[in-house]
Amino acid sequence: MRATLPRRTLRCKVPLMRGYFAIGVEGVSKAFNVGNLVRSSHAFGASFAFTIDARLDKRQLRVSDTSDASSHLPVYHYPDVASLELPQGCALVGVELLDESIELPSFRHPLRAAYVLGPERGSLSPALVERCDFVVKIPTRFCINVGVAGALVMYDRMISLGRFAERPVRAGGPVEARKEHVHGEQLYRTPKS
């Protein structure tokens, strides 16, 4: 028997995307920033969240997670960069304002990715930047809040990999509904001899 969900929940459903993603933060010291990030990651459909070298009180973290997202989403805590473990094939994407960073609107998101942000008053450590497969930056004039930056990265991933109706040329919403996926005929592959 299927449970009935409130209408609000049904309308706000995150579209299914291929692949998976996670989001984390290095050297964070404010529990409410982690709580905000975990709540946003749950809302955007992340597979897990993580911290690296977090300098925060775990009790405060429970209080800051106002939606109890950590009950529905694994949150891993790593003591340092060397301890960070990601699934095989998962690209590590740093989010940092560096000259050589790729601007987020021009970035093609990997299907399997873990995004990592720096601390509130600092940058990603050189060891973590070295470990990243890609480093992206949000094109802003100055640094923004960790939770806001994480939400922007997840939103960009959702609109670039999700299935949405095309944007219209004029201002406003789409004129046509999103096109349904069409499955092709079954392909039979034979080994080359």
From TrEMBL:
Question: Does the keyword Hydrolase belong to this entry?
Answer: no
UniProt xrefs under SUPFAM superfamilies: alpha/beta knot
The yes or no answer to whether the keyword Cell inner membrane is present is no
What sequence ranges are listed for the domain tRNA/rRNA methyltransferase SpoU type?
A: 22-155
Q: Which GO terms describe its biological process?
A: methylation; RNA processing
Name a Pfam family for this protein.
SpoU_methylase
InterPro entries in the record: Alpha/beta_knot_MTases, rRNA_Methyltransferase, SpoU_MeTrfase, tRNA_m1G_MTases_N
> Could you cite one Gene Ontology molecular function of this protein?
RNA binding
Q: Which domain of life is it from?
A: Bacteria
List UniProt keywords, sorted A-Z: Methyltransferase, Transferase
| PANTHER family from the UniProt entry | OBP33PEP LIKE PROTEIN (PTHR43191:SF7), RRNA METHYLTRANSFERASE 3 (PTHR43191)
Q: What is this protein called?
A: rRNA methyltransferase
Organism expressing this protein natively? Skermanella aerolata
